[in-house]
Amino acid sequence: MSSILEITGADIQRLVSPQDAVDALTELLCSDFDPSDDLHRASFALPFGSFLIMPSAAGDFAGIKIVTVSPDDPQRMAPRIQASYNLYDAWTLTQIALLDGTELTTLRTPAVSMLAIRPFLASLPATVTVIIFGAGPQGQGHALALRAELATHELVANITFVTRVTSVDDIANLLPKADIVICATTSKKPLFDSSLLKNNVIIVAVGSHDPDAREVDAALCRRAHVIVEDRAAALREAGDIIHSIAEGAITKAQLIPLKQLVLRPESILRDRPVFFKSLGMSWEDLAVASAIYTAHGKALSDSSD
């Protein structure tokens, strides 16, 4: 068996920028690939947590991410979520690389968010007020990606993190000023009253793929353009969407697939809030992992010239 390339978290940070990851996702969605054809995430219960298995295949590559999720417990002295990613040649199914799946996810999730909000950034003020619920890896990753993305539009991000110690009054004072709100928490119930948000706000929720969990209320879905990676996946796993449909705030037909947004961004008017609910899908990991692998090969080629 040929040797398998190992790509560390440090390698990933060096090889691919947040914008590179967004470009890789865009390229795949502009091809004949449709997220509705992606393989489903599978979950398996363990005595002290769970396994998540996320396979996908597109173009020249196939891959599978293996994720472990442990309960929130500071005494464990380990990250709540850990992962590895196996990348394969699509035609021979020979493994060609092993990537740090945790760092891959930290890069991939904000990249998907940036892809979803990129068409709307031109309507924002020069200094963009950003509120991020959650200061963990995904909150920090979104802050990094947002600064980079906004800089390409000659915009500056003024970012405030909301954590468990932030008072209700402080949150109520922050939200009416927000241009972008990122929700990256494990909350089971809405984090805020969406009536506090202005009409042209952009909201992204990435914290859960649990049908019983939600970070935003149904009132937000009622007044917003609601974007999802895939309708069927959202109806299976997105508590924010499932509860809002059950409460009559939105219908399945009103959900806007991400591929539609990428191909026809002009079809969505800036006449109301934009809400993107992200679950994290297997094709996204594959797109970014493939870009990392390709960038690694190019770096080796350049160094040998």
Describe the secondary-structure layout.
Layout: E1 5-7, H1 9-15, H2 18-29, E2 42-46, E3 49-58, E4 61-69, E5 81-89, E6 95-100, H3 101-117, E7 127-133, H4 137-152, E8 156-162, H5 168-174, E9 180-183, E10 202-205, H6 218-223, E11 225-228, H7 231-237, H8 239-246, E12 256-257, H9 258-263, E13 274-277, H10 282-304
Parallel strand pairs: 1-6, 7-8, 7-9, 9-10, 10-13, 11-12, 11-13
Antiparallel strand pairs: 2-3, 3-4, 4-5, 5-6
Protein name: Ornithine cyclodeaminase
EC number: 4.3.1.12
Enzyme class: lyase
What is the compact description of this entry?
The chain is α/β, with parallel strands linked by helices and 305 residues long. The chain has helices at 9-15, 18-29, 101-117, 137-152, 168-174, 218-223, 231-237, 239-246, 258-263, 282-304, and strands at 5-7, 42-46, 49-58, 61-69, 81-89, 95-100, 127-133, 156-162, 180-183, 202-205, 225-228, 256-257, 274-277. Helix 2 packs across helix 10 (282-304), helix 3 crosses helix 4 and helix 3 (101-117) packs across helix 10.
What does this structure look like?
- With 305 residues, this protein is an alpha/beta fold.
- The protein has two domains: 5-106 and 283-304, ornithine cyclodeaminase, domain 1, CATH 3.30.1780.10; 110-282, NAD(P)-binding Rossmann-like Domain (Rossmann fold, 3-Layer(aba) Sandwich).
- Helices cover 36% and strands 24% of the residues.
- It has ten helices and 13 strands.
- It has helices at residues 9-15, 18-29, 101-117, 137-152, 168-174, 218-223, 231-237, 239-246, 258-263, 282-304; strands spanning 5-7, 42-46, 49-58, 61-69, 81-89, 95-100, 127-133, 156-162, 180-183, 202-205, 225-228, 256-257, 274-277.
- Strands 8-7-9-10-13-11-12 form a seven-stranded parallel beta sheet. A six-stranded mixed beta sheet has the order 1-6-5-4-3-2.
- A hairpin with a 5-residue loop joins β5 and β6 (95-100).
- α1 runs parallel beside α3 (101-117).
- It is globular and about 60 Å long.
- The model has no long low-confidence stretch (mean pLDDT 94).
- It comes from Alpinimonas psychrophila.
- This is Ornithine cyclodeaminase.
- Keywords: Lyase.
